[in-house]
């Protein structure tokens, strides 16, 4: 409200962060003013988190400079950032479950009373209780973290950051697990900090929040800055338009297929992070599952695959109900449900083993019923698998680690083809894969559906979903909030994103 | 104090029941001499279990404890055996040599694990082999025995009917309790054990904490080694073999979790006495040494099973909680 408002606290100059194969942040320049609440929005993978992690000292930029309070700022650790007065509230909880609230809030800055560095627990608890009271929280500093609810734990994270000296406070989706009352608290605190001259960078997907609290807003897309505007000068549809303006590469090869029998139908399914889900997938159909991170997409897929527990509801496979008691991954695999995970290296294949072994992995029991392995059968099946999806390799004996990401993905898909799966669940099938290989994976997925396979595809890449899927279910906060069909006029990125964000009325 | 009592795990009440069993059925179990015997027998293992407890609390483990004890025992014993008429100063030097040997191993463990980020299992296993090996080389397979009375009295001298080694163990334990429950170092050690990532993000110098933990563990093992020479009046290449497993058992019985950051050294202290008391009871009931080992194993298995079951029950409860907030 005075001249100080316009002064720059942090300026980010031409910052680029390169990861193998992708520029997470691409030549980005941005100024954060003193005492402003600066919102950053963007789709999943737009580079928001990478950017703030650079500011908070968690990772180092590849090129570019940060200028903080007029001086060059290049933190080597979180500690350096904290010393400069920059703190961050992380999206995921990062607390010591078996320690008290006070011990967590004051970790690494415990007040000591003698030269022996004895921790003054009394002082620590009382100053922690003061912070908690300021935040309007009604739990005690001496309680153990594991006895608090998730929302309360989130507020401990807030307390932890607020208790430090802050010139710049970064909040990465702090409200994802808070109730409305707690969000109000948090906003009150945020405004208080702002009035004390603290600048705040606020990342969120919840549009109402942004309008309520922000001063300026920056939209990011594919690691680059699209625009920075005053909140008062921009409307929500405009923001969404800027978020989704991602270039659509013409690599999709969706062909018309004839839709057959119902393969999977899920009725009122409730589980770990999702509620009352109703979906169905038919033979020859590609169904997309869109939503923001944390919407419960992967959890739903894992429940269908028998990996995560189901609380209530039923799953029908070819019209037959899967008995909840023997709903295990093994049963799901036997029925013909396959899951192609997001994290290929950790969950998708056996690193260090040959293509052949990896391809057989799901089918041992079926190929060799008497338990004796025949090399000729192995070789023949593996060769067929490699040919079917056109895996670029001189031999099936080759180590999968030596293949490119795209070819690894193809090996995983052929593993399930060998096994004769009926339903294929893809979790982010093209993450970290270059464009050329992407096209091949798309045509492989298309091939699956042409042969009558049913495909459920989770993706954060909207052009990819729109290019491949016949229908898209959109999830938000654990519920299916909408469905868009290819034949509908509003089969657009704007429509999907606005449902995912919860602003369906504006699109 | 209340805070510390809370850290006494449920497991230990079961163990106390075992002890009650012996109180009733084992002959002479509550005899004053037997109780002193139990305390005396648990004293040295208490000291090294403190080191083991530290490393496990920090989420890792030090497998070299028994080897380091042995190396420290034989090297200090060799030194002392060379002295014709030892003075108090010689005894002090002998102890410092033992502690020094332990610290060197602890230092190496710490540097390799904390600084160079080598796997703690491999490093401490290698160090275990090296230290047992050194003990073999130094002694040439011989037993060194027959030390002066003054040296033996460091542990054996009886004050108010209780041998010195018990006092030493209590003092070391109190120091360790103070260090872990009261000081900044202790808080940081818990933080590192509970979540290394969280600790690092909070600005704790994780490397330094880990280094100090291994250094301390080595130092305590070295100290335990010399005390063992004084108490048993001999040193050989297998004087402390297998002590790393006994220490591990004590720590587990005391409720320190392998997850790191859960439990406390008070548990290691109590666990040491309980296991010694149980073994002593079995002995009094006429069970052979071999059976005692079997029994220790079964006892640990039981504890692990109880622990796992209670964890699972907690987990299902938490799952529901997550769902309610989804």
From TrEMBL, chain A:
InterPro entries listed in its UniProt record: AAA+_ATPase, ABC_carbohydrate_import_ATPase, ABC_transporter-like_ATP-bd, ABC_transporter-like_CS, P-loop_NTPase
Spans through the membrane: none
Coarse class of the protein's main subcellular location: membrane
Gene Ontology terms: cellular component: plasma membrane
Keywords annotated in UniProt: ATP-binding, Cell membrane, Hydrolase, Membrane, Nucleotide-binding, Repeat, Sugar transport, Translocase, Transport
Domain (ABC transporter): residue spans on this chain: 10-247, 246-502
Top-tier EC class: hydrolase
Coiled coil feature spans: none
Compartments where found: Cell membrane
Classification via SUPFAM superfamilies: P-loop containing nucleoside triphosphate hydrolases
Protein's membrane topology: Peripheral membrane protein
Pfam family, one: ABC_tran
Any one Gene Ontology molecular-function term assigned to this protein's record: ATP hydrolysis activity
Keyword Hydrolase: yes
EC number: 3.6.3.17
Protein's name in the database: Putative ribose/galactose/methyl galactoside import ATP-binding protein
Organism annotation: uncultured spirochete
